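Researcher: Please translate sequence to structure tokens.
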Amino acid sequence: MKASILKTRFVGAVSCEKQKPSTLTIRLKSGERSYLERRAGKHSLSAYARTKLFGETFRETSIQPKADHIVLAQLLAKLGQSSLAQSMAVLALAAKNGALPVLDDTEEALQKSCDDIAEMKSLLMRGLGISEE
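Model: Translation complete:
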């Protein structure tokens, strides 16, 4: 085949492809971007700009928590509702003050249990994106 025929077939095949959406880029000052992000709320800046420029409406999507977050939240709630942490702290304090007769390794086990419960709480809160205060 001649090169010109191949070129014609190639160009024809390429022009039939679906074109990608084009991108619009603008430079913003930090204050301008912050303003737009506040106005956009939960929507992306692109979606917000389309609504303002072309009058499109936001596609309403329901934001549902991921299954992992639901389980983590339930676990954190269960830990908070139980008096496990407080009971362990009372036992550890009583053991430390001598009010509860225990061996040294028992006192250490109680203290480790208290520390483990505190760590579980911290990990659960971090997994849920909740800051400890």
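Researcher: Any highlights?
Model: Residues 104-128 form the longest helix (25 residues).
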